[in-house]
Amino acid sequence: MFDESDAEIISGTEEGVFGWVASNYLKSQFAGDGLDTVGLIEMGGASLQVSFVPKTPVSKSDETKLVPVKIGSKSFKLYTYSFLNYGLEAAQSLFASKLKALSPSDSTVDNPCYPVGVEFDGTQGSGVFDQCLKKMDDIIDLKMPCPSTCSFNGVFQPPVSVEKFLAIENFYYTAEFFNVLSSQDVINDLENAARSFCSLKFNDILSKYATEKDPAEELKKYCFSAAYISKILRVVTKKSDPSSMFSVTKYVGNAAIDWALGSVIFEVVNDARLSPSEWTLSRPSSGGPSLSSWISLEVLMFLAVVAMLIFFVRYFFRSSIRRSVIPYTRVKS
Asked: Under CATH, to which class is 88-251 assigned?
């Protein structure tokens, strides 16, 4: 039986590392030479994580900003950053607050990122997708001073060149709703579909699209979500059409990608307490089976569920603890 002290709230960096490990484990990218890894962009409700091993060499000073990750005999320099308040739910509130701050106090604040008939956080939907896309610059600042190379808001990010990414969580749910998951030009097709959707009045959207899976509260968000994720994907890659660099997904095979799985891989395989300066995933020495076959996926998924339950117990009991200052510790055996 677990004691409350057996679990800790993970940091944004740890979430990025574990998500990256889970993605590459499920795709068997650690087998063979293990050098051709995939990056991960995940957008939850409160935060956005970007994680990848840069192909482009970085300066020595910038290299200190990368996270050393050792997996068996393989070593990686992983870039990972967690943008707090840039998950889908938090970003909507941030966007509305910016609109209100830039509008006269006695005026009705039009919000182009919601259909006509939707009120959100003191703003009124006007349903103009292209205006919504343009106004994303209000919260995704590309002009903030940057000492090296940055993504947005002055946050360091190595240049993206030929890296491949998985985009998960709210990227997936939005693309799924607009039926562009299988598109070869997912960003442009997403924008075109959202442009038509956003122009509809909300009553018409309800009569046409409301289902148990997509109730009214979810339907309100899709106009904003389409513009927001389109902007994020372009900003991260610094490319006008990065569709070929991304696979928008939720699963690898039948397994869902989740940071908890990456965390459990560390728990199951590590023999020693993790050091924040080096994330080490041990495996048998020469002659042992590959990482992908060594650990039963079914066992890992079961333990991932256990890890998530521990996480939520910890969260509800100690919600006052700041997430950013809690170090990751192994679950006691």
From this structure: alpha beta
Tens-level pLDDT at each residue, the chain (333 residues): 556 666 677 788 889 999 999 999 899 888 777 678 999 999 999 999 999 999 999 999 999 999 998 776 778 999 999 999 999 999 999 999 999 998 887 788 999 999 999 999 999 999 999 999 999 999 999 999 998 899 999 999 999 988 999 999 999 999 999 999 999 999 999 999 999 999 999 999 999 999 999 999 999 999 999 999 999 999 999 988 888 999 999 999 888 998 888 888 766 655 434 444 444 444 333 333 344 444 455 555 555 666 666 555 554 444 433 333 333 334 343
Of 118, 260, 146, which is closest to residue 202 (Cα–Cα)? 118
Q: Where are the domains of the chain?
A: 88-251
pTM of the model: 0.81
Contact 58, 158 (CB under 8 A): yes
What span, in angstroms and rounded, lies between the C-alpha atoms of 243 and 238?
12
